[in-house]
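Limitations

Structures in this collection are predictions, not experimental determinations, and the ligand pose is part of the prediction. Treat each record accordingly. The example that follows, with magnesium ion as the small molecule, is included so readers can see exactly what is and is not provided: the inputs are given verbatim, and the output is the predicted complex.
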Amino acid sequence: MFTILAIDDQEFNLAFMKEILSDYIFLKAKSGKEALHVLSESKPDLILLDVLMPDMDGYDLIRILKADNSTRDIPVIFITGCDSEAEEEKGLTLGAVDYITKPFRPSIIQARVKNTLKLIHQQRLLEKMARIDGLTEIPNRRYFQEKLDYEFHSAVQNNHFLSLIMIDVDKFKKFNDYCGHAKGDEALAIIAKTMQSCLSQPHEFLARYGGEEFVVLLPQTNKTEGLHIAECLRVQVYNTQLTYGPLDAKAFLTVSLGGYSLLPKKDQQPHFLLEKADACLYQAKNTGRNRVIWDSQPSLKQV
Ligand SMILES: [Mg+2]
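Predicted complex:
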């Protein structure tokens, strides 16, 4: 359900909009100042903004909204008694998606609101599709890269630990050879789901890195905590018992994991963390698979 914030200094107008927009969650504010307060606590999908208001008018308010990262993307429709072309042009130039003038016809307002919300919905869907892996329905590599950059920067700023696990499905080619690619795809989706179920915190971020490789980003997580999670991932995948191979020598699909923890510093690049975890994964592969190898910055060995 979409949420709409209506901002108007006239109680009468707010009541009117509430009535005609009863299909939506309706928030209201009687001034720009009050609107900013509402926006500090909730994020509506659409803002209906009056132009003429005492103190801060609609134009002043939209400038503030468009200058703020947290409100910039919320579409604004001006809804006003000012019906001059110059006013309309001004509103649209300032970033409004639409401009509705008096006389207010309920059906017109309803239709324009509906159209705008439909566009928002489609846009969000596209954005989501661009970041989600179609097969496993978890974030893709592109999304992960964005997240890594963000969390790395945040860890530097806040002097927090950051851990990363690289995961590779063992002998996946063999599985595909025995069971076929369709079963292979199915197995990857099951493994993704299984690993996702091991992650209990919202900041723990699992993504498909490519092929049969996955990655988990763990903000504010040190080596001890990270190792615990990695071991859980390994055991849970094993317990899923995805079997393959000849009848007399059935095997389960397993994963190898390489993890790395550090307190990131300004002069380091996010890629450093990936390389280190990848080196551990390589070691896990070369020392028997179905295991976790973890390393951390030399100064953090005691952690
Ligand atoms: Mg007004």
